[in-house]
Amino acid sequence: MIARVSEIIRGWLGWCPNAQPLRTTPPVIATPPVTIHPAQPDGGAGRPGRIGHGIKLATGSIRILFRNRGLLWFSLLAGLVMIFSLVSSLYLQFLSGTPLFPGTNLVTGPVSVLIARGSLPWIVLTFTIGLISAFLSYYLLAALIACVSLILSGRAATIRDGLAHAGSCLRPLLSWAVIGALIGTVFSLIMNPATATPGSTGNVAIIFISIPFVAVFYVLTLYVVPLLVIGNESLINAVTGSLSLFRKTWREMLVCFIIFFLIAFAVLLTSLVPMIAIGFSAATAGAIVVTYMLVMIVLLFIGSTILGIAITGLYTYGKTGTLSAMFERKRVGSEYP
After folding, report:
1. Is 73 domain-assigned?
2. What is this structure's pTM?
C-alpha cells in the first residue's frame, strides 16, 4: 500500500527520492533594461536642465583640460596652423596690393600688384591656403576628439594615439576640407571690392545672404568631425547625422558657447586692467599692446582645445542622452599621461 502511494506521488509531482539534489539559483524574472535619461528636452528653450547641461559642458571642458594638461600639445599644434593660415593670407593680401590692416597705411603692399584680387592665380592660391588650413584644423580636431573620447571612457590616451586614430578617416576629412575651402574661396571672392560695381549694393546683399550659409557649415563641422572619428560614419551619413544631433543639442551648444565667450571676455578684461594701471605713455604703449596681443593669442590657442573637449562631450550627450561623469565634477580613470 505504501509503495502504491509513493508511485502516485512520484507520478503527480515528478519527485524521485533517490535522485541527486540539483543546485539551482532562484528563478529570475527577466525584464527589459531601463535606461534613465536626465530630463530630455522637448523643445523648451529656457528649461533649467538644458541650461545646466550647457554650463557643465563649458566648465567641465576647462576642468578636463586642467586635469589632462598633455592635451595642451593640441593647443600648440592648432596655434601653428592658425599662424600659417594668417601669415599666408596676409602675404597673399600683400602681393595683391591690399592694405594688410584696412583704414591704416601700414604695409600697403608692393607698388605694382603682383597678383590681382579676383584673378585666377589669386583664386587658386586662396583655395590652396584654405584647403591646407582646413584639412590640418580638421585633422587636429579629429585627433583631439579621439583622445578626449578615450579619457571620458576612463582610459589613458596620448597625442600619438589621437593622431593615429584620426589617420583612419583622412579621406572624409579631406573631402570636408575641400568643401570648406570652396566655401571660403567663394566668400572671399564675394568680399572682394574689385568685383563690386561702383554705387551698387549687390555685393552687400550677397554677403548678408551668404553669411548664414557659412555659419551653418562651421556649426555642422562641430558635429561632422566627431561622427567621422567616433561614430565611424561615412561623410554623407555624418552630414545627415549632424543635422539630427544639432536638433537635439543646439540649446546646450548655445549656452556652452555663451559661457566660453563670457569667460574669454572676463580674462581679456582682467588682463587689460593692470596694463591700464601702468599707463599708456609713449614709452610703454607698444609693450602694452604687444603683451595684450600675446594674451589674446595664447587664450585663442588654449580655447581651441577647450572647444574640442566640449564638442566631444556634446556629441556623447547627443548620442546617449546623458552627460559624461567627467563633466559632472567626477574623476574617471587616470590622468592624461
Report:
1. yes
2. 0.77
